[in-house]
Queue: 2 jobs
Job 1
Amino acid sequence: MPQVIISIGREFGSGGKAIAEQLAKRFNIPIYDRHLITEIADKTGLTPEEIEKYNEKPKNHLLSRRVNGYSNSIEDNIAEMQFNFLREKASSGESFVVVGRCSETKLRDFKCLVSLFVLGDMSEKIKRVMTVYDLSEDKAKAFIDKKDRKRKRYHNYHCEGHWGDSRLYDLSINSSRLGLDKTVDLLEEYIKSRMGE
Amino acid sequence: MSAAQIFAIVIFVGMFIMIVLDKIERHYVTLGSGLLTLVVVFGICMRSGSAVMDTLALKGFITKDFWYQVTESESKGINWATIIFIAGMMVMVEGMAKAGFFRWLCMKIAYLVKCKTVPIFITFMVMSAVLSMFIDSITVIMFLAAVTIELASLLKFNPVPMILSEIFCANLGGSATMCGDPPNIIIGTSLGFSFFDFLTNTGLCAAVSLIVSVVFLYFAFRKEIAGGKGEPVDMSKFPKPSEAITNKKDFVISSVIFALAVLLLITHATTHLTVATIGLFIAAITLIAFGKHALELIKKVDYKTLLFFIGLFIVVSGLEETGILKLIANFIGDISDGNVMLMIAIILWVSAVASAFVDNIPFAATMVPIIQSLAETSGVPISTLAWALAMGTDIGGSATPIGASANVVGTSVAQKNGYPIGWGRYCKKIAPATVIVLAISTVYLFVRYL
């Protein structure tokens, strides 16, 4: 199988992560999401809990500074470690699925990159979040908004393009239209076509 | 309040906010703000061509005083002497780094103390302070932190306390001389002080503070640095100091140039050579000595910092020309009500607290005209206020991870190597050390100058 890197950006509650896991299974390749945290933990000697605390979080501008390219924001440094880790994996020729981490931008120089963005109708996202996190409708909506705001700030701080902007991805898809399984089928076909190029 | 004053304040505050937000690189922020000052404040509001010319201060280049100064004089507008001096030192430091000087020095000292943790801890603190007296603390910490982490992995100790102590001592050492910390260069060149003036005033205070700080930091961190204590150190596993030298000829040349720079700086009050001349001369001989690698050194010069300074000086001139800084000076004069002791304490502690949270370079650049005005109206010697400002900005910057450039670089190097240093970890021991040194400085200023 030729090398393929599947980057999946996602709105919170859209099922993007579940789709990523399905695609990883179908192509029989590893997925880097939470796994990235343990990999970085092994490499640096930090505990996974420490990395988790700062994972995919935008930095606090008032509490950190950047001097000559050196940032003392722990969030920035964890992000940079993850980007480097992904680049190393990509350069080694490994195929993998990666969720978030600005991967559509950070890995765009790799021809084998297929970048996808999964979005969803708010009503569907609320339903999913209510079930998974056992929340009321209002709380689920607030939770989604908070998570997406965070992802957007994280992404837009580290990349030039805007999070969720279709011009940044090869394909943006609303998972609420076909449901998760059929969305995975469609994406699998698309990725296979791309791999055959 | 006039329109010019309002715009000058808005531009200044906007610039500070943009620097903190870090969305746009800081040199673009200060240059953009500087341009706005020139066009809106001086051009549209004041319609003053002379204010523009005074701020650009280009005439200074063709005056003899700029290069060879017999009598002390004060400068206004863009402080070109600071910029040329910093640029010159940057070229020299790049040459030294390329030759492997800093890594060699760190390794040599580690070898001399037989790679034992506690002696390394103490000697590295002293080395950090001494090097920072002549070289920018960013470079000093960049190398020291990297070598500390390397030694920590070999000797199995936690490098964080050592890095934090090195950062603290770098800022302290920087306060001792005119070229140690950018605020001091700005204060020195703006108010006409010499290297020796700093050494005999802030330097003395820094020396006393260093002794106290080394003792304090040792007791604060002694449990953490104990690490591999007791185990015999196998020196054969360590990289040899000589391995750090990339090119022997370059190493010798850069060491000689460094020694020459130190000599010129120490004697510049006697030789009458200004820091601008020294900076230019040191850069020129470094470039000549490195021959075909000269272009490589020039490319490595951090021109962004130089542009940052230029923009900053213009914005501060906006506040100065519109009389805002005079108003602030009068305000300080009023609240201290002629009490010199209170005035010194305000300048020292306000500078320290401000520098702990915002970049101390813009702060010092803003405060210089304020203390000038304050000295004129209150009759307090400008030198007394200058030393209070220098110590406040230099030492205060140590208190938090964002207070000074060395703190940012040191904590960043540690983080990149898997040792995260958050605010809590940083401030727990370093903030008390800062307060102790500020207290020493307060007593020193009161005893010596009142």
Job 2
Amino acid sequence: MVAARVLAAAAHLSLGEFFGLYPPKLYFVAWVPRVVLQLLFFALLASFLGGHDYLRFVVIGSVAHATYIGALGFTVASITWEQGSGTVPLLVASPSSPLLVFVGRNLAMLGNGLVSGALTLGLAAVVLDLDLTVGQVLAASMILVLATASVYCLGLLLGSIVLRFPQYRNVVSNITVVSLTFLTGAYVPVAALPSWLQPLSEVLPVTHALRLLRHVTLGAPDPGIGPSIAAEIAVGAVLFVLAQLSFTYFLRQARAAGTLDFH
Amino acid sequence: MPSTAIHTAARAVACHGAPWRGARSAVHYGPRLMSAISIRDLRRTYRSSSGFFSTRRVEREALRGVSLEVKRGELFGLLGPNGAGKTTLVKILATVLLPTAGTVEVFGSDVVRSTTEVRKRIGLVFGGERGLYGSISARDTLRFWSALYRLPSDAGRKRTDELLELVGLRDRADERVWTYSRGMKQRLHLARGLIARPELLLLDEPTIGLDPVAARELRQIVARLRDEDVTVFLTTHYMAEAESLCDRVAFINEGLIPLVDRPRVLTRLASEIRYLEAELPAASADALAVRLRAAPGVRDVRLSPAVEGFAPIAVDADATAYDAALQVLAEGGGQRVNTREPTLEDVYVRLLGERGMRV
Amino acid sequence: MPTLLWWMRVIVASIRVELARGFHAQLIGGALVSPLASAIYILMARHLGRTEATSYVVLAPMLFGMWGTAIVASGEAISSERGEGTLELLIAAPAPAALVAVGRIIAMTAESLVAVPLTLIVAALLGMPLEIREPGLFALGIFALVLSTAAIGMLFASLFVLARSTRLFQNVIGWPLWILSGVAFPLAVLPEAMRPLAAFVALSWGAAVLRGAAAGAGASWGIGLAAVLVLSVAYATLGARLFIGIERRVRVDGSLSTF
């Protein structure tokens, strides 16, 4: 199928770009420590503020935080690199759907989100001395994949908006990560948020997945497995559709206004 | 005052070893006799290690012993293909790069030891897309650099207006640089280079990437600088540019400079060869080409594919073989036979072989 | 033009360019991220009813915001000079390139100040206001920390240039500092081996002074302020030394422009 091939080609490019920016040595020297230290920071903070239960709560929440920085830090950035390297008009002129290419171009970020999340989860298991069965590990992994995919869709949507304002890409990226951190129940249960914010949390990526993750790894109360999965998929799907609409809108605007630049 | 003069001379000798170099205050040694640029046996090697943890050390000799003198007020051209060492040489003159060995002096000041002195007297036009702050206007750009080059505020403002007028950017002066075309950016680079009224202007491939009209305009501005007693050192790989603009031209290739002279003198080097061009009927073109190649005194024959029944042919022949070659072409039914003037390119090719002057 | 006046002119010119470039994006970023980051810490404490930890959770986003801006701004400044290819031209100009850096840093420090009032406001709005019993001392502490922000910005800038790839190190360099700073949580929470390192992070001294000022029990504030100033001078000196070394390196290696 042509679409699959386009996606694959774009993904291949994405990986190349990612490893160009983060050659394996540098990944271990710069990125991995970042993920580890972030977990360490919040674990220490949690142990200062609360008791053992709260520590467990926060450490698992850190897994979500890791996927945010892994998947969002660059999605937004690399889409603007596309803009910066002048390849957008080339994409538009080609017969493939630009959206497909954009989706594929950032798959490395999806990968990075997964790796960062998995790394944190592994560390969490060690730090909290969790005794997980194989079944639990499998379940947790699948939840992680679902969560990261969901975040990725948010990244695509943000990326499409940031195309119009490239100088704000870092700002948008930072704000999103920070907001997600407190809105999705990573470090504070959603129930503890102001009541007017809670509905927002329910429609953000990872909120549902995180509840599931805590249930599986910590034995937290069952949030309803079926409904949670469905909700998470729904959130991701809606974000994906919005992203597509946003891209199409951007491209149409740009073609009309003549702002599809080669540099 | 005699005693002061002697004192100055003594100091000059002590500092620089030879009284005719570097003594800015030496009135009677005549600083005007000083070369603008004096390069002796310059070498530059690049060492790079790849990767964050250095795995491989690669050495590249960009300049392998270059010597050169550029006179004050000259418009001097450095001509060579990419990778020949042009940009390296210019960067060393600009004090942005250190030599590995050899001496380089600008108006008598050593680029390594008297860096600040040199920087005060030079202007750089490094050109291209980079080197400009995209998000500010041309006017703000020039005002920023005027501050860095120690112009007081009002002088800076006046100079900015002057230069914007000179390079023809006055109308778009307050728009952000990222909206400018390539040619406009290049002109801004030139204005920037001139901001402090430098005594020496260094231009690195100033017309590269410009369309012919824009390139010609830029060259005209550069040519006019000579009237203001500005020494210009320019690098280029366009033969025609070097030929038309420069007082003297140096060829550079693979880090060495084999030849320096006035363009006219250089092209005369190639004048013992005659450059014939013609169009031969397609049917007999190949046979005639073979005959010409075999003829004594013919150095090169280049036959191109036929277009509309005629194949263009170029013949480089010694003066002695000229008449014979001309006859072959005429008898073979050649059309539009003509002899062209030698150009710097011909000199270059003769000197350095068919490396080609294409980018 | 006398030298000192010229230097001032260069610094002002550099600030002007900075204002036209990244300033608004970073200012807005700082203005929006600070309150959001505050929300995390404050909500955590509120959820657990730990009102006695107020000074920790309010000062953390404030001080991390200040130094965080230094990290972002100096990183942006370096990578944009590299990207736009202006670094060489700055070196070739007769003005000491360090002055241009100073101008950028002043602009950046102004950006970083945004975090201070915003954090206090958000804390109040979220129901955990920080009561400041000795506002004079508090202001003094902030002032000292602002100086430290400028100084650490210089140091970061030099480190970023040497590190070749700015963005990667921008991400990682903050976290060890936040952990060792004793700002978000007391040093007692850290493993014993790590605690002495906090003495090198000016934030730890500054935060102690600010906490003292808030509680009205600022006993050894003199030592704290002095420590912040001494460390600031140390950061700035190290940054300046590195900077000079960098210029040398650019000219010897011919690197940086070919990043």
